[in-house]
Amino acid sequence: MAHDTSTKRRLSGAATALLAAGVLAGALPPLASPARAAETKIGVIDSQKIFAEYQEAKDAEALFQQEMKQWQDDLGAKEKEIVGLQEKIRSQALLLSKEKLDELQADLDHKIQDYDTAKSEILDPTKGKAVARNKELSQPINDQITTVVERLGAQEGYTLILDMASVNVVYLNPVVDLTARVLDALGKGAKSEKPNKPDAADKKSQ
Q: SS3 for 1-12, per residue?
């Protein structure tokens, strides 16, 4: 399903460029001399790889897909009712009275409106339940990544740490890639609470 794929893509690329030591995004200090160049220490991370390999991110993704499937199943059931009622009206149009046909048509209109409303509430790209749930699950992980990267940058004197998922990297010396170190730090600590599953009351309200 297209909506499912795009939302998943949003969960996988959620982290943005991370800056340490107060450097303005996209602006490197002017390298006036070799001595000045030696002061500039740059590192990179790959947030997409972190989200793909970090266990908490994988758990959050699995939970999100489970909830998306339930929403899709609910919409599918509504759509099936609509198709069934449309077929009933079509096949019995010559057998039913005008009053009965009008009643069935009104019921069909109501079901279509209900389906459209439910679909918008779930899949609206700016304020739908899927977008909100994606943010709820991914934000703690983004915060963890930011905390680890900022700590690493401060402790080891990095001027700038960029995210390869957000910038166009033409060449990269593996020495400056901090992704493995960030994953290691995330695995050892700085863990948030496990993603929360909606309770029964929340599911009914959805």
A: CHHHHHHHHHHH
Let me know: does 22 contact 159? Beta carbons within 8 Å: no
**Residues whose CB falls within 8 Å of the CB of residue 72, separated by 6 or more in sequence, listed in order:** 1, 4
Distance CA 27, CA 150 (A): 18
pLDDT tens-digit series, residues 170-196: 999 999 999 999 999 999 874 444 545
The two three-digit tokens of residue 57, written as one number: 């991110």
Q: How many CA atoms lie within 13 A of 97 on its CB side?
A: 3
Cβ contact 121:128 at 8 Å = yes
Task: Tell me whether strands 160-163 and 42-45 are parallel, antiparallel or unpaired.
Answer: parallel
Helix (H, G, I), strand (E, B) or coil at 154: helix
Residue matched to tokens 């198709």: 83
Rounded to whole angstroms, the Cα distance separating 22 from 112 reads 53
Helix (H) or strand (E) holding 43: strand 42-45
> Tens of pLDDT along 86-144?
999 999 988 889 999 999 999 999 999 999 999 999 999 999 999 999 999 999 999 99
